[in-house]
User: What shape does this take?
Amino acid sequence: MKGNDLPILPAFCCACFMFKGPLDRLFTHGYQTLLRSIEDAGLAPSNESREVYHEWHGPESDKNRIEIQIGVLE
Assistant: This one.
């Protein structure tokens, strides 16, 4: 990488969920919700996950919007 260049992540097949709220609920109201949906759809999660922070107002804010992506096996 040079200067302000950012790495580009490769595309991957995933399921996603838009979590809204404070970080202390990210796993119980975000990841668990998405993992349940993946299981209900008959899909199998891979070992890859990503978080995309669309809005960040601090760890305790209800205004945070974090997109959770969990890879699914094809």
The chain is about 20% helix and 35% strand.
